Structures are given as C-alpha cells and as structure tokens.
Protein: RND family efflux transporter, MFP subunit
Amino acid sequence: MKVFKMLSFGAIAAGIAWGVWYGFFRDEGTEYVYRTQPVTRGSISATVSATGSVNPVEMVDVGTQVSGTIKEIYVDYNSRVTKGQLIAMLDTDMLQSRIEEAKAALALAQARTTSAKASVADADRTFKRNKELWGRDLIARSELDAAETKLSLARASLAENNAQVVQAKASLKQAETSLGYARIVSPVDGVVIARKVDVGQTVAASLQTPTLFSIARDLTRMQIEASVDEADIGRIAEGQRAICRFDAWPDTTFEGTVTQVRLKSTVVSNVVTYTVIIRVDNSELKLKPSMTANVTIVTEEKKDALKVPAAALRFTPPGDVLAALSDASGAEQEEEGEGSIMGLPPMRRRNGVRSGDEDEPVVWVVEDGKIVGSVPVGEQGISDRTWVEVLNTQLKEGQELAVAFSTAGAAVAAEGEAVVVRMGR
Structure:
C-alpha cells in the first residue's frame, strides 16, 4: 500500500514537473534565422539566352574561273585591299597559247570564207551564162540545172565559212577573257580574312569555282548567328535588344539588335534550333570573326515595375511556424465570432496579411522579426528568374518577404537581410 502511494506521488510530481517545463519552455519554441528580401520597384526584363558566333555582315569569297597554277600572290592575311586591286596572278603560258590557237583558227576560217566567196562568184557567172545559152537552145536543160546546183552549193559553203569565222572570233574572245581571269582582283574594299592558296599551287575550276581568298567588306559591322531553342523562338522578334558577351572581353558588354529570325530550322540529335541574326557594332574593332558570343535577348522589359524575389514564391515556413500561425488565426476567429459576415478569408492577420491560401501563390511577410502571415501574389507579369513582376496585388513596396530560413547557429546562404525570429504562442 505504501509502495502504491509512493508511486502515485511520484507520478503526480513528474506530471507537475513536466507541466512547469512545458509552460516555461514552450514559449521559447525553435529559434529560426530568416533571410528576407523586400518588395521593390524598378526595372525588370524577360530574356532568352543563346550562343553563336560573330562574323562580318558582308564576307566575299574570291575565286578563279579558270584552272591554272598560282604564279604570284600580292596580299596576305589582314591585308587591306581596294576594289579592283590585283591580289594574285595565275601562270598565263597555257592561256596565251590558247589565244594564239584561237587567232590561227580565225585566220583559217577567214581564208576559207574568202575562197568560198570566189567559188560563189564563179558559180554565179556559170549559171548566168548557161541560162542565156539555154534560152537560145544552145545547151541542154541538164547543164543549166547543174550550174544552178553548183551555185547553191557554193553559197552554202560560204554561209558555213562565215559561221566558222564567227565561231573562231568567239573562241578568241573566250581565250582573251580567260587570260584576263588569270588576274585575280579584289571585288570590294575590305580586309583579307583568309588566304587559302600558296604560290605554285594548282587550282582547278572545272566543276566549281575554288575559293582563293575571303575578304570582309567592313569589320566595323558584325553580326552574330545565334542558335535559339524552339521552346524560346516564339518570343523572339526583329528589333529586340540583345546583350552580347565574349570570352575575349569578359568585362565588356556589347549592345546588339535582332535583325532577322530565320525560318529554316537546324536539327541535331533531335534538338531543334533556329538561327537568329543579331547586328553588333564593332567600331572599336574589338571583335574578330568566328568569336563565340553568349547572347541575352531581351524579349520584354519594364522600367518601373513592382517586383518580388522569385525565391519568395518558392518559400514555405517550417511546420511549427505554420502551426503557430494557424493557432493564432483560430484564436482570433473565436474572439471575433465564427465565420465572417463580410466573407473575409480565414486566418487573416493584421495589415491584410494572412497565413495561407492554397488557391493561389503566396509570399510570407516578416514584420518586427516575426512571420506574420502570407499575402497572395496576385497577377504575375514578366520574370527574369530572379525577380517576378506582380500586378493587382495587396503587396506594398518595402515589405520584407522571407526567402529562406535555418535554425539558430546555422548560416543562411546567399544574400539578404537575416533576422532572428523566436516562434512562440
């Protein structure tokens, strides 16, 4: 019996001790460190990122229309050239011999034409004489017919020889033109970007024109051919601003403008991309052909937008904080009466802040070192992945929003204002 009484007293004492400990320490709760960022107003832009290479707007490939051996080269890489300037020369020995052959063929054709003219004149005289004799019945009809046939053949031969003269003249002109093609001249003013031949090298122009030089017309006007993913191409339009960066100039940004969105797609490993042309000013000649460009195309931007940190939209308070907010909301509802004749949403907190709404995105507001509840974001506008524009919202500029938390003693990574919040009843 005594043992039973002792056990009973022990249990009562333990219960009292637990109650004292719970009542004293429960208000302390878990200590959290919150990182906050304010609702702010400023510029925000939606962007699309892409990569590409930069090249001159106008690039001319210089080739040759005749086959031959490179005899002389008068320019090199980076040489400045003017329109019509001689930049290379082919060996002309074979071309010169073709001209001589063409001249000889022309002379032969002309001589044959002279002979054919004499034959026509002789045949014409014979035909006229036989015609007169036949009219006086001095020769047979067959002799007249033979003379007429001979005249016709002589005239045909003359026509053929005349055609051969024309053909020989054309061959001579072609040979002279080919000789002119042996002089490789620059078609534009510009800078030699590439030289693809050396002295003594043979070039063959039988199937296609071989490229000897590449000349950039104006290196101050460059363009980027950027590959944009099919998921983003619908947001790209001509006239949009682009921010371009190059590894060679890590601390410099170059402004560009979208000038063309090409319709033809490129498919590599089932990935579809489209080429977007971005015009870039290179007046300082910092950019060189084929440099890799990292491009950020601004698809939409606003100068004075109310915006919240994107991290605040992803933030959820700890479970015990949510429970405390729910308890506080329930207590307020009991004081004000169950329900609301004004149809106000449940768990409303002071200053229009409430502790949760499952129907729309919310952000969590920190005031005086405490999370006081959540505010519906409202309509979302453009986003740059760090900030989100908000429209038609209850949020006010300057309100501090929770974006991350940790328990006391643990560091909160990233930037922002850290406040210590001790959750209690």
Remarks:
- Residues 1-27, 337-357, 411-425 have pLDDT under 50 and may be disordered.
- The helical segments are 2-25, 93-135, 141-181, 310-314, 319-336.
- Residues 143 and 361 are 116 Å apart (CA to CA).
- The chain has five helices and 21 strands.
